[in-house]
Structures are given as structure tokens and as C-alpha cells.
Amino acid sequence: MTATSAKAMTYDNKGILSTLGRDGLLQVILIANTVLMLFPVVIMVFSGFKSNMEIFNNPFAVPDFANLSNYIDVWTQTNFVRYLFNSVFVTGFSLLLILVLGTMAAYAIARYEFFGASFLLLFFIAGLTLPLKLAIIPLFILFRDLGILNSYWALIAVYVAMGLPSTVFIMTGFIRSLPRELEDAARMDGASELRIMWSVMLPLTRPAMIISAIHNLVPIWNDFFFPLVFIQNDALKTLPQGLTSFMGEYTTDWGVMFAGLTLAAAPITVVYVILSRQFINGMTSGALK
Amino acid sequence: MARLSLKGVKKRFKETEVLHGIDLEIGDREFVVFVGPSGCGKSTLLRLIAGLDPITEGSFRLNEKLMNTVPPSKRGISMVFQSYALYPHMDVYENMAFGIRLMGLDKPEIDKRIGEAAKMLQLEPLLKRKPRELSGGQRQRVAIARALVRKPQVFLLDEPLSNLDAALRSEVRLEIAKLHQDIGGTMIYVTHDQIEAMTLADKIVVMNEGRIEQVGTPHELYESPANTFVATFIGSPKMTLLEARTANGKLSIPNGGSVTGSAPDGAGETVTVGMRPDALDIAEGDAPEGFGADVVYTEYLGNDAYVYARLADGTLVSVRAAPKTYYPANARITVMPRAEALHYFDSASGARL
């Protein structure tokens, strides 16, 4: 055997990395990860179509998807619709406020030179480092004194405060990257500062606004802690909190609960997908030349 | 009518002063070009005239009216930006309509003006397109049209050709010259390209380090530059400057030969001599009259050739020659200036003698 063929032999024996390649290995890991992540979700959806009995006897079995009794129960026998409305209202209103206030603040910080602009940005960013949950007791006392305990406003106030730092951070960076000459052009055209922001800059910040929206949407929608503390009135409960009332002290109808969870996760998933697509469109539209 | 008058205009950004007192008169219908190297303050001056930045000190009057605090849109001035600054989310029609709508014009008038501008700049088939669907030259024309529909007294153009490729550049340059003839407004054009300046301008303002070095017609600047900066900035390849000793009716460089000629009055023992490439003749080998030089390389340009050679004192001199001229590197030549085509500058101050 010559030296070269011996060398070739050793190259042939490099194992999985050489057969699949680096990208192939990456794919395998990603697929494994996807299965791991989706597994509980699939079980949740499956269980929504099963009775308690079926869930405990055959937890992994594929259910009869025609059996919608759990979903009908959730919709008619529980306060689910009310919780859904509460969640939509609180999340929607919070996002609206976060985007409006965050964009305005970021625009001012990014575009106007004034004393303390960079301090203001740091102040907002410092908010990222504050665990709001630590302030729960003072917040509770504050909201009690303000008389907004047990109302939407307690939740919205906290969520907006939570969402603003990251939004201001993202939007400031983005607005700074927009060409300044656009504003100058609008100024030459006689646009007021408000019109420049509304007609020229805002349409261009859409990709960043969507990032901020996605970034805030999921944590707010899924938040359990703040409603638990601030909301006692059943009619004002949000979905994550409301769904816990399905768990009885002695018995729990797991099927109905999983159906509720599935319904709760569905809208957010749809919105997420739509926003992501918008975001990708925004990135590729060439708005920034 | 649009007469602009700047008096003692200064601009400071925080501590740094970028314009040190600009005095300039611009007449009606003039095509004025601000030219100078990067960072000379020409764009800053344009932004002061536009009203995009406040004037720190001094006054700017348009038709005798003080403009220092008048907002940009009320000055009767339009601007074409270097990056065009078209609104990316609006189509061509909306880009043009945005400003005149804010002026409060009614729909028929808006349509009429946009129609005229679109016709003049051949934008009619493009009115419904977004800027991203346009080529560089088309974007440029939209930017000009957007300035046009406002019917301003003064047009400002900030390096409008710098984003175009070479072929398109000369084409658009012609269009701009034609536009100026057709609409007859006052135009102020900023560029760092002296060819654009020479070809377009009625009047060139040469700027350097926040000061005006010279104001004049292209002809004046080329024929009688006020100082060594203007002399080397205008003309390509640039004028060669030579430190020469004046004695006995001769200009000489140490160990490098001499030419007959006397510096004008006021010259000291040494004088800076400026020689344009076309003011020089070449003789092969050494000659009694002229500066001896070693060829560095020969540049063939088709209709001309330029010979670059090093004189005894180390100065690199460029000479225009007939296209078939070729000298190999290190060949010995003598460059002979024609006395009437020389420029003389004070050695210390650089001012024209």
C-alpha cells in the first residue's frame, strides 16, 4: 500500500462530521431541539381532545379530533370568553401605549439635541435591569392608594413600564440609523416637526416597531404574576390567571383545561406569525436604500 | 429676482468654528458653484443658506430681507440633497406633492405643477413608482423635480452627482445646465469636483478650511489664481509649484538648471513659480535653457499624454505632450516653461504676485 492511499484511508474515517458536514450536524441538533420544544405543545393540543380518563390511560395517544366537547365546555361552561376579552384588551392597550410613548421618547432622544438626552436614554435603559417583581409590595400599596387595584389600569400601567425600556432602546437605535437628510428634506418642504414624525419618520420605523411589538407581546399575554396580585374580581381576570380557576381543590378537568390552554395560545401564535412576516417584509422592502 | 448677500457669516458647532466669516454676493440668475476639498465648509454654508442650521454670527439677506431666523420653507429656497432624500414610502407623485400640498395649493395646481416638472425631466411614466424601483439617474431627476415644483427663487444642490456613475454624471451635468437656462433661477451648487465646477458655473467660489480663497469666473480662476491653493485646486493634472531663486534675470533651482525670466515686482530672493502642464515643452537629454528632470512615468490618455518627471529639487512636474510621446522611466529630459504662461506666488504667503 502506498503512502497516499493510506492517507486517504484516514480521511475516510472521520465519522459523523464528515458524512453529514458541519451544516448537517447543525440541522440534526436543530431538529432535535424543535422536537423537544414542540413536544409539550403537541401533548397540550392532543389532551384538549381527550377526557380525563383518556389522558391518564393513554397520555401520548393521538386523540379523536372530532371530539370537540372540551372546547364547547370551555366556551360555554366557563368564563373563558371573558378572560379572552380581558387579555386582548390589556395586551392590546399596553402594546399601543408602549409603541406610542416609546416611539415618541425614542424620536426625541435620537433626533433632538437637548441637555440630558443621553442621560434620559440611560435612564430608560436602566429600567431593563430592574426586576419589577421586587417592587410588588410598594406597587400594590401605590395602586391601592390610587384606587386602581382590581382594574385593567393596574395591569396596563405595569406592562407599559415594563415594555418602555426595551422599546425606547430598540427604537432609538433604529431612528438614529435613518438618514437625517430625509428630515431636512421634509423641513425644506415646510413640514412641521409633528408632520415630519408622522408622515416621514413613522412609516420608516415600522420594522423596529414590529420588533418591539413582538418583543413585548408574548410576555404580556402570558403574564401570570401581576394579574394574580392585582386582580381579584373574576370578571377582570386575564387568561393565564383565569385558566387556573379550572384547577379545582379536589378535582380538575384536565381535558377542559388543556382545551382552554390551546385556545389561549392560538391567537398569540397567529399574531406572532403575522407580525414576523411583516417584520421580514419591512426588512427587505429597501426602505432604507 | 433673487439676490443673496452674506456678510461676516460664521458657524460654530460647540467649540469648533467651521466657517470663519464668509462675505459673498450672489446675483440674480447666477449659477454659483462652491468648490473645495472635503471638510472645507462648503456644505455647511449651503445648509446655512437653506436654513437647516442656524447662523452663529453674521447676516444672510435674500433680496435685502434678513433671513437669519426665517424657517427653511419660508425662504423660497429648494434643495436637492446628496443622497436625494426621497421619501421611500411615497411614490414619485407623492414625493413631489408632499411639499406643495403643505404650501396649501389646491389639487388642480398641484397636478399642473407636477405635470410640468415631470414633462421637463421625463418622469411621466414613473409617477406611480416608489423610489426603490428607480435607477440612480431617475432618483436624481425626481429629487430635482421635487425641488422644481415649489417654484423657488433659489435652488441649492448639494453634490448632486456624487452618487452617479461616470457616464451618467456628464449626462446629468448637461441636464442641470439646461435646466438652469430653462427656468432661470439662481442656483447654488456644491461639489468637490473641479470639472463640474468649471463646466457649470458662472461664478466659482473656492473654499478651504472655512474661508473663501477666491471668487471668480472659471476663466479667472484658471488664468489668474489668487494664491497657491486655488492654483493647485483648479486644473487637472494640477499645477506644479516650484521654489525658484531669482537672480540676474534668471529663475533657477539648485543644480537643476534655469530659465530666462524675471519675477514680477515684490518677489524676494526666492519665488514660487506655478507651471501648468500645458505651459511646458520637453526636450530630450540636457539643454542649456530649462530644468533638467528624470521621467517617472508617462500616462497615455488617447488625445493627450502626460509625462511625469522629477526635478533636481525633488518636485514632481507634469507636462502635457502629444499623444504619441513616450519616455521610459528614468529617461533624462529637460522641461522648458514658456515664460508668458508662468504664475508667480509669494514664497511665504502663497499669494499671487
Structural overview:
Chain A has 289 residues and is mostly helical. Chain A has a domain at 78-245: MetI-like (MetI-like fold, Orthogonal Bundle), CATH 1.10.3720. Chain A is built from 14 helices and no strands. Chain A is globular, with a radius of gyration of 26 Å. Chain B has 353 residues and is α+β, with helices and mostly antiparallel strands. Chain B folds into two domains: 4-233, P-loop containing nucleotide triphosphate hydrolases (Rossmann fold, 3-Layer(aba) Sandwich), CATH 3.40.50; 240-345, Nucleic acid-binding proteins (OB fold (Dihydrolipoamide Acetyltransferase, E2P), Beta Barrel). Chain B has eight helices and 20 strands. Chain B has helices at residues 42-50, 92-102, 107-120, 136-148, 166-183, 194-200, 218-223, 228-233; strands at residues 4-13, 16-26, 31-35, 57-62, 65-66, 77-80, 154-158, 186-191, 203-208, 211-216, 240-247, 250-253, 257-260, 270-275, 280-284, 290-300, 305-311, 316-321, 332-337, 343-345. In chain B, strands 11, 12, 13, 14, 15, 16, 17, 18, 19 and 20 form a ten-stranded antiparallel sheet that branches. In chain B, strands 6-7-8-3-9-10 form a six-stranded mixed sheet, with helices on both faces. In chain B, strands 2-1-4-5 form a four-stranded antiparallel sheet, covered by helices on one side. The mean pLDDT of chain B is 89.
